Amino acid sequence: MQVLPTKVDRSSEEFRANREAMLAKLAEFEELQAKARLGGGQKYIDRHRKRGKLLARERIELLIDPDTAFLEFSTLAAWGTDKNLGANAVTGIGVISGVECVISANDPTSQAGSSNRYTLAKTLRAQDIARQNRLPLVNLVESGGADLPDQAEVFITGGKWFRNLTQLSRLGIPTVALVFGNSTAGGAYVPAMCDYAVMVKERAKVFLGGPPLVKMATGEESTDEELGGAEMHSRISGLSDYFARDELEAIRMGREIVAHLNWRKQGYGPTMPADEPVHDPEDLLGIVPRDLRVPFDMREVLARILDGSRFEEYKQLYGTSMVTGWGSIHGFPIGVVANQQGVIFSEEAQKTTEFIQLCNRYDLPILFIHNTTGYMVGKIYEQRGIIKDGAKMINAVANSTVPHISLMAGVSYGAGNYGMSGRSYDPRFVFGWPNHKVAVMGPKQLAGVMSIISRAAAEARGQTYDEEADAAMRAMIEHQISEEEQAYFSTARVRDDGLFDPRDTRTVLGIALSAIHSGPVKGTSEFGVFRM
User: Fold this and answer.
1) Which residues contact 505 (CB under 8 A, 6 or more apart)?
2) What percent of the chain is modeled with pLDDT above 70?
3) Which of 160, 286, 427, 524 might form a disulfide with 404, Cβ 3.0–4.6 angstroms?
């Protein structure tokens, strides 16, 4: 394969300005990340420690193998809402006893680890990742149950949590519950529905109704331990499979459970040399323009994330605003579909459709790198069949069975998001850089469309159009869309699996690709009807 060259000039004014803008964005991002890691805040962290308990991320750090990475999902869930940043939970992928697992942990310092609508979205997504990629799921349980003021948004959908646990078990994907504290009411079903349950002495409290509720309902006097303590469930009810004397022993038991699973990957694994890129990933900070309306060369991005910067480009001279081709990341072969100049024309759609079919023939996962304003519009393009060609591309994406990873690197507008395997097309993972934007269209374009529609409606009624009101409406819409298109807004609602520093792209994608290969990687030749 060809080693991609580079035209990056680190001394140029444009490069330096782009780098400074990205560093400022990353500083803001890291500040938010740090706040999310504080959970409910220092007061509640101190209270939790005084009880002799570990924090959620400390439990995870002890659970995973030493000196291995933990790829955290949706760290900024609930950003900008009335709920705590991070959504009272920590989820991600870590290696336990040599096995990649999805880990889902309640954060008891944040609203007692209770579940609101964002918690639910975040933890359900973690379960989806476990199922789609055939990864064992380990739950670190300490939760006050549903966030009652949010019950209308949690209760009905929340049943999926328990259904998913049983379905994972049916699929032969192991589920483990390490219970460090409360797991009450509906939460009591978590250890019951997992394949393995470990409970910590004098800490675990697993019951459908606590002493006050039991007294109100039946008049019976009872203690926490009698109703749902670890010792009772270990000796009497049989709900607990392992009785741990403290948190450290529970974590050790969790590691031993995963170790005896005899877990094997079903994917073909890394088959290519996993050498570092020739070009420095640090350059990514200056490659991405501070104004995303300015296009940038995706080959420069690929040269800094692919093994050895090697890339075999497919149809390089045809449909040039889309880059397609083959490479590898950490030894895992992949196909790449990357937007080059923003707009997708008929040629780009046709080229991508063919390429997706080829990747399915060869059982190759596909990395989609987003920077598109959508499919081209206009009389000439409509007459040339842009709808049909766009439909072919979306057909190919929708029916492709090889795993997809979407990386939101720039803008992702309109149906271009769909054609690039956006969230609604069930890619295995969706990640983003903190600068990315996603919406139906740009703020100015959307405000302009609304203005044209309103103006036409007024003329049809024979009314004089209020230009002052129009200007106010346009300003309001532009402000709204500018807020809603930003990466934080999207990640807050768990529409991606998390944001990260562009310099970490290769590492994040490598972990994701390794996780994907825990299950079989197999393409298809079955697609819907392609309109010709």
Assistant:
1) 281, 284, 304, 305, 407, 433
2) 100
3) 427
